[in-house]
């Protein structure tokens, strides 16, 4: 099987972000430069118990290739069943296990970053994914620990499961999204294991991405919140350009809008409001623009407003 993921150049990956990295957003960043896209986090339970909404979350756009689905779970038999369901769905190139989500409802359920506090359990769950998956790639997304940073131990546990690469967010579970990102810890993990390591956490612009790659010697960067309202960061990294002109930004915003309408239908314009709040940050007249946008639900009117404002 031909390797779809090429590590000869640093990999540029879109992080899974609940509520943001749906099919329209992924298709846009893919078109403009992301090497790999990953679904929003999918609960193994929801998948196994046939949630319609969950099935829709897995759908991918035709240009998403390679495409990875991220699952969360803490019971080997449920994770096995989830993996077997994904095995039967065409067009998925890999399965990623979430071992990093700090959200209380995920953590308290024993999933996400909870697994970092019990590496035996992490290996059991991740080993289950590896054992049953028929997809080309098995990967894991981790943090540095629950309260204490143990990057080397986590790296080795993940590597022992035979994964193809690991993405590491440079904070502990306790650090949520506020603590400073520890790039030294990412560097330590990279030095301790032989599988590719993707650096994640506070990579908000082109310069930061270059700096993190150089400092940690990571095999790629994973960008999540830094891409909300600025998805052109993928274009910049792909084409190695520091600056991006207004026309390109407008093109990307309109492309995103059209994709949202296309996928979510009539409700799409209302969903796009929160995205326009992010897109308009830093623009003159943004507050006024957001005020008006909050009352618009006609897609034609909204599209015209986007063209005029940006």
UniProtKB/TrEMBL annotation:
Cofactor: FMN
GO molecular function per UniProt: flavin adenine dinucleotide binding; tRNA binding; tRNA dihydrouridine synthase activity
Pfam families in alphabetical order: Dus
Location of the DUS-like FMN-binding domain: 14-303
Coiled-coil annotated residue ranges, if any: none
InterPro entries reported in the protein's UniProt record: Aldolase_TIM, DUS-like_FMN-bd, DUS_fam, tRNA-dHydroUridine_Synthase_C, tRNA_hU_synthase_CS
Protein residues bound to FMN: 70, 141, 169, 224-225
Catalysis performed (reactions): a 5,6-dihydrouridine in tRNA + NADP(+) = a uridine in tRNA + NADPH + H(+); a 5,6-dihydrouridine in tRNA + NAD(+) = a uridine in tRNA + NADH + H(+)
Record Gene3D superfamilies: Aldolase class I, Putative flavin oxidoreducatase, domain 2
Residues spanning the signal sequence: none
Active site residues per record: 101 (proton donor)
Sorted UniProt keywords: Flavoprotein, FMN, NADP, Nucleotide-binding, Oxidoreductase, RNA-binding, tRNA processing, tRNA-binding
CDD domains reported for this sequence: DUS_like_FMN (cd02801)
Enzyme class, first EC level, given as a word: oxidoreductase
Protein family per UniProt: Belongs to the dus family.
Physiological role: Catalyzes the synthesis of 5,6-dihydrouridine (D), a modified base found in the D-loop of most tRNAs, via the reduction of the C5-C6 double bond in target uridines.
UniProt xrefs under PANTHER family: TRNA-DIHYDROURIDINE(47) SYNTHASE [NAD(P)(+)]-LIKE (PTHR45846)
Name this protein carries in UniProt: tRNA-dihydrouridine synthase
């Amino acid at each position: 099987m031909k390797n779809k993921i090429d590590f000869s150049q640093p990999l540029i990956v879109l992080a899974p972000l609940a509520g943001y990295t749906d099919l329209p957003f992924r298709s846009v960043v893919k078109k403009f430069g992301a090497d790999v896209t990953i679904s929003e986090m999918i609960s193994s339970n929801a998948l196994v118990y046939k949630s319609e909404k969950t099935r829709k979350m897995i759908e991918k756009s035709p240009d998403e290739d390679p495409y990875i689905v991220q699952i969360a779970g803490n019971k080997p038999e449920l994770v096995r069943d989830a993996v077997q369901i994904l095995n039967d769905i065409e067009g998925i190139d890999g399965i990623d296990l979430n071992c990093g989500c700090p959200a209380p409802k995920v953590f308290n359920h024993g999933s996400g970053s909870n697994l970092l506090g019990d590496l035996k359990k992490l290996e059991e769950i991740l080993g289950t994914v590896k054992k049953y998956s028929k997809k080309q790639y098995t990967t894991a997304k981790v943090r540095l620990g629950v309260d204490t940073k143990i990057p080397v131990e986590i790296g080795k546990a993940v590597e022992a499961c035979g994964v193809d690469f690991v993405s590491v967010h440079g904070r502990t579970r306790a650090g949520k999204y506020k603590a400073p990102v520890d790039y030294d810890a990412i560097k330590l993990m990279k030095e301790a294991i032989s599988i590719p390591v993707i650096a994640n956490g506070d990579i908000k612009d082109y310069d930061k991405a270059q700096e993190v790659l150089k400092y940690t010697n990571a095999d790629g960067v994973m960008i999540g919140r830094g891409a909300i309202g600025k998805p052109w960061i993928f274009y910049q990294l792909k084409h190695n350009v520091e600056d991006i002109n207004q026309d390109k930004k407008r093109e990307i915003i309109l492309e995103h809008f059209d994709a949202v309408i296309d996928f979510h239908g009539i409700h799409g314009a209302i969903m796009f409001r929160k995205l326009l709040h992010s897109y308009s940050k830093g623009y003159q007249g943004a507050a006024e623009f957001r005020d008006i946008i909050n009352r618009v639900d006609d897609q034609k009117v909204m599209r015209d407003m986007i063209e005029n404002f940006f």
